[in-house]
Amino acid sequence: MKSNNYISWDEYFMGVAMLSALRSKDPSTKVGACIVNSNKRIVGIGYNGLPCGCSDDEFPWERSGGFLDTKYAYVVHAEPNAILNATSDLTNATLYVTLFPCNECAKLIIQSGIKEIVYSCDKYQDTDASKASRRMLEAAGIKLRQLDTPKIVLE
User: Fold this and answer.
1) Residue 71 CB: number of other CB atoms within 10 A?
2) 46-67: pLDDT as tens digits
3) Mind spelling out the 3-state secondary structure of 65-107?
4) How far, CA to CA in Å, does 137 sit from each of 25, 50, 93, 111, 143?
């Protein structure tokens, strides 16, 4: 008799996104992403971090100060990293991401052909960036689902 004690596909792929987030060097916000094709195969994984070749020790991780003195000028978000790391076409793929995508990521998600986003946290939902993101994603017909599962704390 088979075990009935196993996680769903959604929980599995979100777990991969959460595990990926643990690779981030960002001291305040760790985000992970996992892209899955229609055959339930992982085709891309990413986390928020500096571009390849840029040392994590030589660039700032601060959240406030002048633009050039904060992480915002340098960090690549998890979603574009997963898209850039993709091993195949992303048309009709599903993106699992630990934090609802910002407006800049939404543009790349739409252009990549991803058709569904499953997200865990939406703590910035009242920001203009999140509102713009949601507006574009909905206009592009991308399905949005918040996964209602216990959250793993990413420190």
Assistant:
1) 19
2) 999 999 999 999 999 999 999 9
3) CCHHHCHHHCCECHHHHHHHCCCCCCCCCEEEEEECCCHHHHH
4) 28, 26, 14, 11, 8
The vertex-44 CA angle with 21 and 58, nearest 5°, equals: 50
77-101 CB burial, b ≥16 within 10 A, e <16: bbbbbbbeebeeebeebbbbbbbbb
Joined together, the tokens standing for residue 60 give 């700032």
Whether residue 152 is predicted with pLDDT greater than 80 in this model: the reply is: no
From residue 97, alpha-carbon distances to 55, 64, 134 in Å are 25, 25, 14
Question: Is residue 71 within 8 Å of 38, Cβ to Cβ?
Answer: no
pTM for the whole thing? 0.93
* Catalytic site positions: 79
Structure tokens at 2: 């088979």
CB 24 within 8 Å of CB 17: no
CA 29, chain centre distance (Å): 12
CB atoms under 10 Å from CB of 62, counted, come to 12
Residue 78 and residue 101 in contact, taking contact as beta carbons nearer than 8 Å? no
